[in-house]
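Deliverable D2.4 — example input (structure tokens):
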């Protein structure tokens, strides 16, 4: 009987210890979650400021130089995002979306650059990421964003002369035989209801001289 009582006490002791362990684990979990949620709120707060003060103004500046651009802010559950969309035009025959977002990390925000060009007819950089501490990295983020915008412009301007994108806009310089995008022609001359495009002023002058 004494042995049974001793075993019962051991079982009770183990169950009580397990209960205390569970309570301690829950307390630790509650503490971690409290810290995590507070950090998430802080990151979201800083991210919102960075979107409004750093990213949005620079995309708005980019928008000024292209009539087909439109900037918007996206507030998503997991990140803050600012995008500039460029509509299809004769000069830039593709639908383009430049997106810069901030994703929360462990004490930092990850800035992410995403570029989408449709249709895809050339190689280009799709994504670039960089981590920034929320303590004093606002200026570094501004420099990073400006560098990405300059990279984007270099990529976007390639659409003007890329043969696959400009294949429907290609014309032939009647003087030298060169095939050029019509928007890249330095000049054009209309004769007898036809429009002639030229790759240079020299070709235009030669055409006018020959036809006069």
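Example output (designed residues):
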């Amino acid at each position: 009987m004494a042995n049974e009582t001793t075993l019962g006490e051991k079982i009770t002791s183990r169950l009580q210890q397990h209960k205390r362990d569970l309570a301690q684990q829950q307390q630790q979990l509650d503490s971690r979650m409290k810290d995590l949620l507070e950090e998430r709120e802080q990151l979201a707060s800083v991210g919102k400021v960075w979107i409004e003060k750093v990213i949005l103004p620079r995309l708005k500046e980019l928008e000024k130089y292209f009539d087909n651009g439109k900037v918007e802010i996206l507030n998503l559950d997991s990140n803050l995002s600012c995008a500039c969309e460029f509509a299809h035009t004769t000069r830039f025959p593709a639908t383009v979306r430049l997106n810069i977002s901030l994703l929360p990390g462990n004490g930092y925000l990850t800035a992410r650059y995403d570029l989408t060009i449709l249709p895809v007819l050339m190689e280009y950089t799709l994504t670039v990421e960089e981590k920034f501490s929320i303590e004093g990295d606002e200026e570094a983020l501004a420099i990073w964003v400006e560098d990405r915008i300059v990279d984007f412009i270099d990529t976007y301007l390639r659409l003007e002369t890329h043969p696959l994108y400009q294949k429907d806009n290609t014309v032939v310089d009647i003087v030298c035989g060169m095939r050029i995008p019509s928007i890249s022609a330095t000049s054009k001359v209309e004769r007898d209801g036809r429009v002639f495009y030229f790759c240079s002023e020299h070709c235009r002058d030669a055409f006018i001289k020959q036809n006069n």
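The helical segments are 2-63, 138-157, 201-211.
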